[in-house]
Amino acid sequence: MFILKNSSSISQVARLRSPRFRQTGSNCTLSFWYYNYGQSVGAAEMQLLVDGMKQPTVLWRAYYNEGNQWLKAVIQLGRLPHPFQFSLDKISLGFYDGISAIDDITFENCALPPPASSCEGPNRFWCRDTKACIDGVLVCDLVDDCGDGSDEDNCNPDLQCNFENGLCNWEQDIEDDFDWIRIQGPTPTVNTGPLKDHTTGTAGGHYLYMESSEPRQFQDKAVLLSPHFNPPVNGTCIFRFHYHMFGKQVYKLSVFQRTVSNTNGWLLWYKFGNQEDRWIRQTLYISSSKPFQILVKGTVGDGFTGDIGLDDMSFLGCTLYNGNLPTISTTTSGTSVPATLPMNNCTEKEFVCRASGHCIQMIQSCDFSPDCSDKSDESACVTEFCDFEDKNQCGWYQPALEQMSRNDSIDTTNIFKWELGRGANLYPGQEKHSPLIDHTTCTEEGWYLFADSSNGEFGHTADIATPAISLTGPKCKIIFWNHMNGSTIGSLEVLCKNGNRTSKLWTQSGSQGPQWNRAEVFLGIRSNFQVVFRAKRGVSYMGDMAVDDITFEDCSPLLIPGRSCTSEEFTCANKYCIPKDNLCDFVNDCADNSDESPAI
């Protein structure tokens, strides 16, 4: 189907209407291929028209010439319980010169779940009228998975929030930088954020979003606090929520759990970067022996196309706690590590938890996943994120420099080496080849790590490394920002060192301009290794190299859960559970390649 030019009207609108549909299931998606080419081709948008709603919902937009090519659009519809139809509008204001076309319209997973003659087995729910048999984890999650609403009957409203009538019993944190915003329809900035909520799938529904435009700055944080919960009676409390992370400059969404009110708690889950224009469901299994609280933290990225959305947050198998969480003194650390080891029965091949004397496998230390209650197994390791503020190097060290420092006869002052620096400390003229501002705070007061080329000679190298990392997961990668500006820049490398073997993972040479540049290096599954940044000096002092905001993302190794995998998960051959969305994506998510088997 394509549009013919009509020159009889200055303002032209071409409209294509779909048949009427009665309803859709909760996993419904619409896809089509479109062509929008020409110097003045104009805009196009797909609208959802629901019976009983005066306001249409914009589902998709194309604003401009997108080249001589067919492009695919995928629209998440979700559960639409009322009759509806689509309207595809092509708008041309003034002179129209171009071709617009649409082809191959496809609906997927739009039917309600089929009826079942029986519904036996653990954690299954039999729908009242449709007789569908669904996973028990879908009950009371604010989504009508049954198609008759029975999976959402008799639910405790204190354990759910769809934000249609406010924040429910969630609260904005007063210790963060700014607040989440409750909104209907699209966010104010184009090409980022949702166009509609998740609950109703229309512009009439409400959700929360984190605005990333000015005056927000990189790494500003907005934190949402849950009510307090009792320790789960059956051992596990299930937290379900839907998130939306769409935009080129989306940064991070993370979930924490805490049992002490004036701490950040410990990390349960996080997600980095653009996840496309869709709502994504996340299920977290929470265990605790003490009353606890959940924190949902959004972190601003490098620009205004970094909005993040939240909707349909619910708990299952949890009960509210009426009291307050305890506090700890701010003068002492709640996870202080004793200087001497407690009494223990650990072998030489096991790690001793400093506070309890509990024994864990040595490979569980320095694996980005705390296994000791005091987190002592991760205390002498590199941290997941390092911004070098407060002059903290987060575990990174220089092996050669430390070796030289042990020899009193060697002066390390003028050796080419890594140092902590900031723009405020630069001497006149040095800003031409060194960063004037750091990447974290974008100020002259912010700290970064740099190799000072005013020391050393041409070809000298400086290495800074992590302590040994025991084990990483299949999606592990390191993300960092680098600054390489100057007429005689040498090279910067990222190396992997395993025993006596060193391999090059990434390299950059020459001047890259007077700005911070993002780099991403895939690590995957590795064991007993170090990550090394190697700077190689150029021919003169006009070429300092700097790094900042180093992040190890998705690096925790896979763990076999003490439960069976849910209907949303795939059971790997090694019994790990991974999301079904990760099947057949050319990534070894299971660590045994069973998720990439041709037999799936």
Automatic annotation (TrEMBL):
Asked whether the keyword NAD is assigned, the reply is no
Top-rank taxon, per record:
Eukaryota
Q: Does the keyword Repeat apply?
A: yes
Q: Which cysteines are joined by disulfide bonds?
A: C140-C155, C366-C381, C565-C577, C572-C590
In this chain the MAM domain maps to 1-112, 159-320, 384-557
The record's PANTHER family line, in alphabetical order, gives: APICAL ENDOSOMAL GLYCOPROTEIN PRECURSOR, MAM AND LDL-RECEPTOR CLASS A DOMAIN-CONTAINING PROTEIN 1
Protein name from the UniProt record? MALR1 protein
Gene responsible for this protein: Malrd1_0
